[in-house]
Design a protein that fits this description.
The complex is a heterodimer of chains A (110) and B (115). By secondary structure, chain A is mainly β. Chain A contains no helices and 11 strands. Classes of the chains: A mainly beta (110), B mainly beta (115).
C-alpha cells in the first residue's frame, strides 16, 4: 500500500514567519494530496488540496506544491499567526483511499 | 463543521469484547472511510465502503469489519478487542459521483478505550 512520510514532526516559528512542511509518498497511483489541520480534541479539517495534474495551488496564506517525479509535496504557510498552531497532516490518495503522514505539530510563538 | 456524525462519543470496553461504532455520512455522500488514530499519530486507513460494498482495506486484521447501509450510513465492528485498539476512530465521507469526489470530510470521532 501507499506509504507517506512527513517532516518535521515538530516546528516552532515566530509569528509572521513562514512555515514549511514536507511529505513524500510511494505509490505512483496517488493522484490527490490533501492537507488537514487538527486542533486538540477536534476532527481533522481540510485546509487545502492539490491534484496530480497541478504543480502548485495557493489559497491566501497557504500554498501547496507537488513534484510528481520526485513523489513529494509541501505545505507552505506564510505570515503565520498564533491561530495557525495545530497539528498538520498530509495525505496521499490512490483510488479514493487516503493514507496519512504522521503529523507536524506547529507552534506559532507570539 | 461538517454534516458527518458519529456515535458514541466515548466508549470503554474490556479486552476480548466486541464493539460497534456508527457513522452518518454527510447528506449526498455515498462513500465512507474509517480510520484509526492512535494518540500522537496520523489517521490510519482501515477500510472504505462505496455503495454498500467494501472498496479497499488498509493493513488491519479481519476482526475489523464494517457495513454500509442503503442510506450510506456505516458501522465499524471490532471483535476480540485488544489493548492496542484504544484510539480515536474517525469516519469520513465523500461523494465519488461528484466533481468534488476527492474531498473527504471527517466526523468528530469515537474515543475507544480498551482496559
Amino acid at each position: 500500500g501507499e506509504n507517506v512520510e512527513q517532516h518535521p514532526s515538530t516546528l516552532s516559528v515566530q509569528e509572521g514567519d513562514s512555515a514549511v512542511i514536507k511529505c513524500t509518498y510511494s505509490d505512483s497511483a496517488s493522484n490527490y494530496f490533501p492537507w488537514y489541520k487538527q486542533e486538540l480534541g477536534k476532527r481533522p479539517q481540510l485546509i487545502i488540496d492539490i491534484r496530480s495534474n497541478v504543480g502548485e495551488k495557493k489559497d491566501q496564506r497557504i500554498a501547496v506544491t507537488l513534484n510528481k517525479t520526485a513523489k513529494h509535496f509541501s505545505l507552505h504557510i506564510t505570515e503565520t499567526q498564533p491561530e495557525d498552531s495545530a497539528v498538520y497532516f498530509c495525505a496521499a490518495s490512490p483510488y479514493y483511499q487516503f493514507y496519512f503522514g504522521t503529523g507536524t505539530s506547529l507552534t506559532v510563538i507570539p | 463543521e461538517t454534516g458527518v456524525t458519529q456515535s458514541p462519543t466515548h466508549l470503554i470496553k474490556t479486552r476480548g469484547q466486541q464493539v460497534t461504532l456508527r457513522c452518518s455520512s454527510q447528506s449526498g455522500h455515498n462513500t465512507v472511510s474509517w480510520y484509526q488514530q492512535a494518540l500522537g499519530q496520523g489517521p490510519q486507513f482501515i477500510f472504505q465502503y462505496y455503495r454498500e460494498e467494501e472498496n479497499g482495506r488498509g493493513n488491519f486484521p479481519p476482526r475489523f469489519s464494517g457495513l454500509q447501509f442503503p442510506n450510506y450510513s456505516s458501522e465499524l465492528n471490532v471483535n476480540a478487542l485488544e489493548l492496542d485498539d484504544s484510539a480515536l476512530y474517525l469516519c469520513a465521507s465523500t461523494n465519488r459521483s461528484s466533481a468534488a469526489r476527492y474531498e473527504q470530510y471527517f466526523g468528530p470521532g469515537t474515543r475507544l478505550t480498551v482496559t
